[in-house]
Amino acid sequence: MEEEEEEEEEKEEKEEKKEEEVEEEEEEVERR
What we know:
- The mean pLDDT is about 95.
- This protein has 1 helix and no strands.
- The relative contact order is 0.11.
- The protein is mainly α.
- Helices cover about 95% and strands about 0% of the residues.
- The radius of gyration is 14 Å and the shape is rod-shaped.
- It has one helix at about 1-30.
- The longest helix is centred in the middle third of the chain and has 30 residues, at about 1-30.
């Protein structure tokens, strides 16, 4: 069970990183 929880946390962290990258890309586009 603990392994499954760790996998879930890793998925959430990856999704958060993706969202942050997308936000940064949008900011880059707005600057142009």
